[in-house]
Amino acid sequence: MIKLLKDDRFIVNSGKKFKLKNFDPGFSIDYVEKEDANEIMQKHIQRIAVLQEKLFASDNHAILMIFQARDAAGKDSTIKHVMSGINPSGCQVVSFKAPTANELDHDFLWRTSVHLPERGRIGIFNRSYYEEVVVTKVHPEIILNQRLPDINSAKDINKDFWKDRYESIRSHEKHLVKNGYVVLKFFLNVSKKEQKKRFMERIIDPEKHWKFSYADLKERGFWDDYQKAFEEMVEETASEKAPWFIIPSDKKWFAQLAVARILLETLESLNLKYPAISDEEKALLGKAKKELEAEED
């Protein structure tokens, strides 16, 4: 059986001295080949579907899956494949783009908070509040457009500013965990070489033109800045209760399998059960059975 959740090659629950250079984007488990992955994936998906129903019925936990990554790292395809067997009524996916005017009139955690899944459901954030310590760190001019009090120039966006943002995130996730949320944070780690390959595929293949944005190529020019921002993101917010999973993503099939396995193991760890019914409810079941059996066809 593939075990990933407990594997320290992937999980980061303390960000101390975290460096992305220590995580190989091209890694895959040597005893699983791409040809075998689909069969294993289907078994995982079937088991996830069973456990999702129990999660929905028990109604005392919610799963929050957060995906952060560079452009073309495979967030959409990973979400699509891992959640392909899920009952849509028990799952929700929210993709966060640039904040709207209404969202900018609230604190930076508000726009994601209003989309948190209810207990019994699995919520997926394709990007999240972490954009506010990644993109904004690479492009601090965005902060100046947010009309924040006492932020009047670039010099006001200092170490204390970022310290406060990280503290807000840590407190937010601690609050979620205390209220029944299981927070799974995935960083899909793609190499610069593989990103180039995927961009070229989008440019060359007419059916993938819609996926390419020249703005993504411009952001590629800030690769080292993003590298540092992602490292600081993990360093400041990884914890035992809300760990980061650094998923090797140069091989999409492996990234998808890893995320599916982590979700499966998480659901299994909750020891989910269907709700027990009272003696009175059991008596009503018996009564209902007799009444239905007594009906004439």
Automatic annotation (TrEMBL):
PANTHER family: POLYPHOSPHATE:AMP PHOSPHOTRANSFERASE (PTHR34383:SF3), POLYPHOSPHATE:AMP PHOSPHOTRANSFERASE-RELATED (PTHR34383)
Keywords from the named record: Kinase, Transferase
Gene Ontology terms for molecular function: polyphosphate kinase activity
Sequence ranges assigned to domain Polyphosphate kinase-2-related in this UniProt record: 33-270
Keyword Kinase attached: yes
Biological processes per GO annotation: polyphosphate metabolic process
Similarity section: Belongs to the polyphosphate kinase 2 (PPK2) family. Class I subfamily.
This protein's name: Polyphosphate kinase 2 family protein
Pfam families, sorted: PPK2
Domain of life according to the entry: Bacteria
